[in-house]
Design a protein that fits this description.
This protein has 210 residues and is mainly α. Helix content is 70%, strand content 0%. It is elongated and about 60 Å long.
C-alpha cells in the first residue's frame, strides 16, 4: 500500500475512495498527540519541539501548526491526552487474584511510557505558566482515580484504621519505583520490593472485617 500524504491522498491508489476530511483531520491530530507523548518520554521537554513531533508523526510542520498553532497549544493538548490515556488504562485493568498481582499491577502503571511522559510534563509545567494549572488539575484527577482503583484492586476497606495509609504508601512506593526506572532497569530490586509490599498489605488488610 502506498504511503498517505498530508492531504490524505494515496498516490498508489488514485481511484480509491478517500476517508472524509474530518476523519483524516482527527487521525492527524491523534498522531501528533501520540508523537508528542513519545517525544516527551524519549527526549524530554527541551528536545520535543513542534518540528521534532511533526517529523515523528509523519506530517509537515505546517500541518502540525494547523492543529496546534504553538508549542504550548500542542503540549497542553498532550497533557489532556496523557490524562485520558492513563484513565483508560485504569478503567481497563484486569481483576487481580492475589495481593501481589494487585501490587504488580499498580507498579506497572508507574513504569511505562505514559508515566515517563507525565514526568516530563510535570517538569515542563514547573517552568511553563501555561502548562502548570492544567497539569496540576489533571494530575489531581488522575491521583484520585488511581487511589480509588487501587482500593478496588485490593478489595480494601478504608474505614479500617491504617488501611488508607497503607494504600497511599503503595502508591507513593510505586511512584518512586517509576522514578528509579527512568535511570536504569531496576527490575530485580523492584521484584523484591513488590513482594515485601504485598506481604505488608496482606497484614494491613487482614484487619479488615471483609
Amino acid at each position: 500500500m502506498g504511503a498517505l500524504t498530508d492531504s490524505g491522498k494515496d498516490p498508489g491508489r488514485a481511484g480509491a475512495p478517500q476517508a472524509p476530511k474530518q476523519d483524516r483531520s482527527r487521525a492527524t491530530r491523534r498522531r501528533l498527540l501520540e508523537s508528542a507523548v513519545t517525544c516527551l518520554a524519549d527526549h524530554g521537554w527541551s528536545g520535543s519541539t513542534v518540528t521534532v513531533v511533526a517529523e515523528h508523526a509523519g506530517v509537515s510542520r505546517g500541518a502540525a501548526q494547523h492543529h496546534f498553532p504553538t508549542r504550548e497549544d500542542l503540549f497542553t493538548a498532550a497533557v489532556e491526552y496523557v490524562a485520558e490515556e492513563r484513565s483508560a488504562v485504569l478503567r481497563d485493568l484486569p481483576a487481580p487474584t492475589t495481593t501481589r498481582d494487585a501490587v504488580e499491577t499498580v507498579v506497572g502503571l508507574y513504569t511505562g511510557p505514559l508515566f515517563r511522559a507525565a514526568l516530563h510534563l510535570w517538569v515542563a509545567a514547573s517552568n511553563e505558566p501555561q502548562l502548570g494549572p492544567r497539569v496540576t488539575a489533571l494530575e489531581a484527577r488522575i491521583g484520585r482515580e488511581t487511589h480509588r482503583m487501587t482500593v478496588e484492586l485490593l478489595g480494601a476497606d478504608e474505614r479500617v484504621p491504617g488501611v488508607r495509609e497503607a494504600v497511599q504508601g503503595l502508591l507513593d512506593m510505586a511512584r518512586g519505583l517509576g522514578l528509579a526506572n527512568l535511570l536504569t532497569d531496576d527490575g530485580a530490586r523492584r521484584t523484591r520490593v513488590v513482594a515485601q509490599w504485598a506481604s505488608l498489605l496482606d497484614t494491613a488488610l487482614a484487619r479488615s472485617p471483609h
